[in-house]
């Protein structure tokens, strides 16, 4: 009986220690902790908002300055862009056809090699072995 009560005391002590450790690991719900979180999130949000505004302003200014150059060179740039687009499309298409050919040859090789192996395994059985493709 004494052993059982001693074991219960040890179990309660360990349980209390576990609860204390979990309380240390739990997030703080105090007003100071929440205020710190709010201020940190606010500062990060304001900083990112300012950076996005600066980026937008810089982009619009660059577009305003580049517009006359684009209009001036558009007789050259538009055909050049079309040629580059067609060249890139041709390269992508040829690469896709090459990949399709490799996959087709791979499939044919696997199919034929498994057919030959199955036929070799079926030879001892004569005509009783059927191979379906």
TrEMBL record:
Keyword Transmembrane belongs to the record: yes
InterPro entries: Oleosin (IPR000136)
One GO cellular component, as annotated: membrane
Subcellular compartments: Lipid droplet; Membrane
Transmembrane in keyword set: yes
Bilayer topology annotation: Multi-pass membrane protein
Family: Belongs to the oleosin family.
Keywords: Lipid droplet, Membrane, Transmembrane, Transmembrane helix
Protein's name in the database: Oleosin
Pfam family, one: Oleosin
Described purpose of this protein according to its UniProt entry: May have a structural role to stabilize the lipid body during desiccation of the seed by preventing coalescence of the oil. Probably interacts with both lipid and phospholipid moieties of lipid bodies. May also provide recognition signals for specific lipase anchorage in lipolysis during seedling growth.
């Amino acid at each position: 009986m004494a052993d059982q009560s001693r074991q219960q005391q040890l179990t309660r002590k360990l349980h209390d220690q576990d609860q204390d450790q979990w309380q240390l690991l739990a997030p703080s719900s105090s007003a100071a902790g929440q205020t710190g979180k709010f201020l940190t999130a606010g500062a990060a949000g304001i900083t990112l908002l300012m950076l996005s505004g600066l980026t937008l302003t810089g982009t619009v200014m660059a577009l305003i300055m580049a517009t006359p150059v684009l209009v001036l060179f558009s007789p050259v740039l538009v055909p050049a862009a079309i040629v580059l687009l067609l060249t890139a499309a041709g390269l992508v298409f040829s690469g896709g056809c090459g990949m399709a050919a490799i996959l087709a040859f791979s499939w044919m090789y696997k199919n034929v090699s498994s057919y030959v192996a199955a036929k070799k395994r079926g030879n001892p059985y004569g005509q009783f072995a059927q191979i379906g493709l």
